[in-house]
Design a protein that fits this description.
This protein has 138 residues and is an alpha+beta fold. Helices cover 26% and strands 31% of the residues. The protein has a 3-stranded antiparallel sheet with strand order 3-4-5, with helices on one face. The protein has a two-stranded antiparallel sheet with strand order 1-2. Helix 1 packs antiparallel against helix 2.
Length: 138
Amino acid sequence: MPVKEQPVVEAAVPPPPVPPPPPVALDDEGVKTKSLALMKSLDERDVATMDRLTGDAFTMYERARTYDKARVLSGMQARTDQGIPQRSRTCADGRITRGPAHVVYVVDCVENLPAYKDLPAGTLETIHTIVWIMDRDG
């Protein structure tokens, strides 16, 4: 008996994946508001706000060292546990620079440091740089 030829069936090709939506851009006021809220959460040791504003890749560079998010959060708690008074700051002249998926906020601040034990109260003029990465995960 002759063998019947089977018709050639082409496998269905799945459509290409849909690219994720572009990152949500912050307007200049949003950048300033979010940046100042981050600094305030650090000053007031507001762990919940700091955690909400930052992602897992958060890194703080301070005094020639880098600190990951877990270290910053534990340091905030340690200062509270030791009774170290909260600092505050006043900031002015913020500058914003943008890239395709990031925003850089640079701001001049005066930090107000309360007296603690044998250390007198004082102020510290600082310049802070905050880089916000708009990832596709929110």
